[in-house]
Amino acid sequence: MGLVTVGELKPTFTGKRGFRLNSSIRHASEWPISDVSSDLTVQVGSSSFCLHKFPLVSRSGKIRKLLTDSKTSSICLPSVPGGAEAFELAAKFCYGINIEINLLNVAKLRCASHYLEMTEEFSEDNLAIKTEHFFKETILPSISNSILVLHHCEALVPVSEDLNLVNRLVIAIANNACKEQLASGLLKLDYTFSGANIEPETPLDWWGKSLAVLNLDFFQRVVSAVKSKGLRQDVISKILISYTNKSLQGLIIRDPKLDKERVIDLESKKKQRMIVETVVRLLPTQGRRSSVPMAFLSSLLKMGIATSSGSCRSELERRIGLQLDQAILEDVLIPTNLNGNNNTMYDTDSILRIFSIFLNLDEEDDDEEQDQQHH
Predict the structure, then answer these.
(1) Confidence at 103, pLDDT banded by 50, 70, 90
(2) Which residue numbers delimit the BTB domain (predicted)?
(3) DSSP secondary-structure letter at 7?
């Protein structure tokens, strides 16, 4: 950003969804001190801000502490969450400029206000409480808003974790998802009793797909939370399929020929392994009938053969064996590699284990029938 003067600070982040601050607001054109030379330079990353001490110390406890020596004319804030962009908005707030809190900036403003100690202890209606109010009123009640803000929290770790923003968002998504599931179920009952032929659209599909923006750690936490709250297994399966397809795009494992390609390939394998193993851990519990499609289990195993642990592959073989009667030939032809050449070799050991699991199930069924006849 380079050098930023007070006169160049103008309100940014305007949008349809926002929350305008309405206390002690001045517009940029009404600056009473725009001609007063700055007495403080604040360095945030590679950006410098030429500002004034009084407005900043009146709102920020951190800056007040750093300016205990009246002769100080320059301070450095290397770790502002959200960087120079977040600090610029916080500085405008200190000056009374009309800033807008919205979905795109609320997470970094909440974290920046914590870092800068912009709390009620130093000034009433300070930035921390303003962002917290927006968080409670606008973000937490909405699944889509919560997912978007959770995604923005990824770049703000560990402060977003320390402030409990991440955990609150995950819980809010889980609670609201289960409320929507209940509402959707009641709506379907209404349609059934009214004799309507058209089934109402469910909102579960769209928000489940939107989870694909999350990194693997946050995605895992959300899915674990909705599972514990009782979200339907078929919905969880759809969410996992959507996330896997989106996350593995472009992660095609090649047979490396050059050193540079080998490094890229190792990174791809590592990412692919983490995705496959995490998704397998999150799969719904399974019996002979499962909400997880056979084609999806097969594709996971084909990827797992090349990259994943033995326990992960064993779990997928078990799941495929349990519902082998639903498979087509392509599902059980597991290649030993995914290089895509014409000399594909198939993992016969894996295929034999899958059939063994399935045949043992049939034997167990026969044993149960015999026991019932004897009794």
Answers:
(1) very high
(2) 38-103
(3) G
